[in-house]
Design brief:
Number of strands of chain A: 0
GO biological process, one term (chain B): spore germination
Shape of chain B: globular
Helix content of chain B: 25-40%
Family (chain B): Belongs to the GerABKC lipoprotein family.
Radius of gyration of chain B: 26 Å
InterPro entries (chain B): GerAC_N, Spore_GerAC-like, Spore_GerAC-like_C, Spore_GerAC_C_sf
CATH topology of chain A: Amino acid/polyamine transporter I
Main location (chain B): membrane
CATH architecture of chain A: Up-down Bundle
Number of domains of chain A: 1
Structural class of chain A: mainly alpha
CATH class of chain A: Mainly Alpha
Shape of chain A: globular
Number of helices of chain B: 10
Order of helices and strands of chain B: HEEEHEEHHEHHEEEHEEEHHHE
Helix content of chain A: over 70%
Number of helices of chain A: 14
Distance between the termini of chain B: 96 Å
Strand content of chain B: 25-35%
Strand content of chain A: under 5%
Distance between the termini of chain A: 44 Å
Keywords (chain B): Germination, Lipoprotein, Membrane, Palmitate, Signal
Number of strands of chain B: 13
Oligomer: heterodimer
Amino acid sequence: MKSPLSYSISPGEMCLTLVSMIVGVGVLTLPRALASEINLADGWISIILAGAIIILFIILYVRLQQHFPGETLLEYIGKGKVWKWIARGISLLFLIYFLCLMAYEVRVLALLIRMYLLDQTPSEVIAALMLLCTTYAVSKGTQGIVHLSLMFLPIVVFVLLGLISFTTIKADFTNLLPVMPEGVLPVLAATKVTLLSFLGIEILFFLMARMKKSEIKVFPLITGIMLVALLYLLVTVVTYANFTVDTTTQITFPTVELAKQLEIPGGFFERLESLMITVWLITIFNTISIVQLIFVQLFQKSFMKENAKANYIPMISIFFIFIVAFIPDSITETFMFGEWISWLGTSLYVFSLGCGYLYFWMRKKKNEKEEYYS
Amino acid sequence: MKKFMLIFVLLLLSLTGCWDRAELEEVGFVIGIAFDPNPDNPKTFDTTFHIAVPSAFSGGGPEGDSGEGSPFFNITSTGVTNFNMIRDISKRRSRSLNFEHLKVIVINEELARQAFITGVLDLYTRDHEMRRKTHVLVSKGEAKEVYMDKLPLEDMPAISIEMINENYTKALEMIETRDIGTISEKMTANQSYLISGVNKEHREDMNISGAALMKGEDNKMITWLNEEDIKGYNWVMGEAKNGIVEATVDDKESFIFEILSHATNVNYERQNDQNIFNVLIKTEGTFSESWIPGLEINNLETIKKMEQILSKKIENQATSLIKKMQEEWYCDIFYFGPLIKRKEYQYWKQIKEDWEGEAGIFKEANVQVNVEVKISHYMTQEKTS
């Protein structure tokens, strides 16, 4: 599992990996989640707000990371005596979180494919094939995964932008009015939902360790988040403009339905949702493979001896992912599962960031004391 | 490693089977659906599926085997739910039904009057095979009748209906096509809406005009709007794309005004507890046909006069429909309600529930119609000799 040590992630690569990590199943359901949360068209404002909050989170973390280049957050914390155990605890939670996240993504993917593309193929087969593919990708190490993301992301963004621009033709943007009729509170309530769809930033804790010290910068990451926010914003606005807010609350996968709505003039193309879902497969593949990579590396570092053989971990991990993926019985349970995972992820991010800062502060104090006595 | 390779090869072999294989020749494409009440049992209804026979399409086959048999067939099933009837066809005909190319749904007027549309649209928006672009129409008389006879030029009656329906820009008597998507939008928003009517008086002929007025609160059809009403509707909604207006000078000689561009601006104001809607209809077009002897159309005076006649006429069409809606049917089909929602949200929240209806506020609204007509040119003839 050792990738060449000479490889380090450049800032641009980091930014794009982050984008392809964040854009996952979230964008398929985001317009509905927003619409049914507040029943107003103000969801787009909260996307901007959530984007700003996420940027703040990232700035905070990057500031911290600059103090320990070449190490992951948990490795950094794990140097203290008591902290070692806290770091272990956090990494265990992260492992559970990543496992559930992969399971969730794979389950939604299987559901979607079953619903729109192949209604006879068993979901289990689709999920298994997906996981086998990502496992192969993981065997190529960090460099391989990062480069896969770089390769696929343009396709995804291109198709999504195409979808958005073609569906604006028949859109009625007055559906977005009135703006903030009930004041700021609903916008804040919706921000909660939107924050969850920005999850994936926790990969920074692990991947930024592979960056050179001089290259740990905030700006490229902010650009990435802005790109994601822009995509979310456009998708939501166009969905509302096409379907009205009231109808959006009724549609399970508004973004796919948007693709179904689309007819290229001339009737040359129909059934564009197949294309859309195929592209979606790519993003979900990206997300899962990034998470799986981190999962495997984290497991190795926290719970295995230095030189132990780790070839079999990815394969064992997919076995558990597969089982967890099919625990929820229905689509409603799956979405509920997704919500729990999101909350787990958010709290983990905030908690580990807090721990990081606390540890940093204590060490600084200690160093000052030592300097004082010497 | 060799073992692994072997496993992979075996996997490849076992995974190449296609679960979802559906041969084109084994699928029956449903192009149109008609819903009729069942004469024997009022609790059930009849669904007629209008299925394509591609091999009999004209110019379809390489050997030019057109004319051999009908390019479509209709099959009717009776039941209380849609899906049950779809599966019922599987028992009776060789090919399973596929709805991906469904173009038209026609609902019998009698069913439309019973809030039937909610049930129909449920399956047809829920299922992934159906598209939101499928046209919906209400028929005067038997719905399945419209699929019986092939009309000239197109292979299937449903395709003819779809294409006629898309001619709405040319005829002022037709409303913009209503598809399942728009209707479900109106349904979730509890708005009243119109659905085009299809009328088959004689065999070999069809007519799409007029519209069924659906009440927002219960999705029941309450009445038909005639062609004159639809003209007014198109003016108020800004949908008179490329229609024509026939007007007369002093009730004698007729002339035609062809609309080239049209926009309607509705302005809402709330003054002294009164809801005031200012409807400004602006249109520009050409003077296209004249039966007036000795008319000098290149004269500014004459044009002014023509414009006045036209604006009077358009104003009449619009106001008479608005009046009808306010005084007779109490339905806000012009979406004035959402306009209030946009401008006076707090006020709208209070009155939302009693906007329409007999004791509603819509009835009391003050609607003013202003029309600006411009004859921009008169084609190539200046004088009628």
